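FIELD: query
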Amino acid sequence: MSRQPPGTPFAHRYWFPLAALYSALIVPWSVGGQVGWWLAPAGLRTGWGHGHEMLFGYALAVVAGFLLGPQPRRQTVLLCAVWLSARIAFLYWPQGALTGLLNAAVVLALAYKLVPVFLKTAKKWRNRSVAVIVIGLALSVAGFHLAVRAAGALPIARSMLLEAVLLLSALMFFIGGRMLAPAIAGHLQDKHIRLQARVQPTLEAAVLLLMATLLLVRLLPFGWIGAAVAVLLFACAALTAIRMWRWRLRHCVDRVDFLALLLGYGWLIVGWSAVGCSLIGCAVPLPVALHAITAGALGTLSASVMIRTRMIRCLKDPNAIPWAYALPALVSIAALLRLCFTLMPTDEVLMAAAALWSAAFLGVFALLSWLDRQADKGPG
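FIELD: result
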């Protein structure tokens, strides 16, 4: 994010392919290990281990790639190496002290790079929310690893994972909206249509404040907390639906990059609503509801962002390869299959969802690798 000499490579050149490949490998390995189809290391044989690697492994790599901007190659490679060491350590020693230290090192390095920049350069508190979210993720990592090492504290570790999911959903809401609003406005302007409701700062501020409130409230030890958090989540979902409706999306059907991003953004509404229903006792198990956010929103949005960001950087056109956005759609189909597990609770459904997810992210990895080769052939 800080000023770098001309020609300094963007961090996403390294982080995005690494994240996509790791995600493609880890999901079927973990799911197959949990259902007994094949062997998996200790860190992937439990639901909390699976969640840790998707949140603090995959998602954190995507966040690093997107937010860090141009970075010296040596620093990026070093941080990637620490991240990879943390992944290996967690896979085989999920409750080890060294594992906790390595994972903490990754998120603390990310916070060291990002937090001062957003706090110093952002003039509005809404823009500074990125720094607060990164700090929250760092605290979630620390809380998780302290909990898994303590006897009988596994519920606290799961709570830290839920906190991380909600923090990432707030980050997706903010960054996704900041990507979509100006892009849609520019596209509509090319059609001689004026979009008055762009960023919608009042609505954006309301959702961020609601998310901050529920993230703090849910840590309180009272019986009514679940219902209160559910109400706040329903409010966030409703406001986000209003925001999307005011973007006049019917004029965006000719832009597949917008459609892919909007698909992921829409999953936030589904995910927040599903988690809210789960918290008030509706027939939606919390692990299934969380997958609407993690597999649906996070998976679809991250795949779309990685493809679009690298395509702009390498080919100067986010729609230079329109079919590439079929990959985020495949991720959404995988998320739907995962949600269908409540209706068809069989190992085959889980493995089909994992296989589709893996195929989609292997495709993302192959595409990103090809785009890097194209960038090496010429300027940009």
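FIELD: remark
The radius of gyration is 20 Å.
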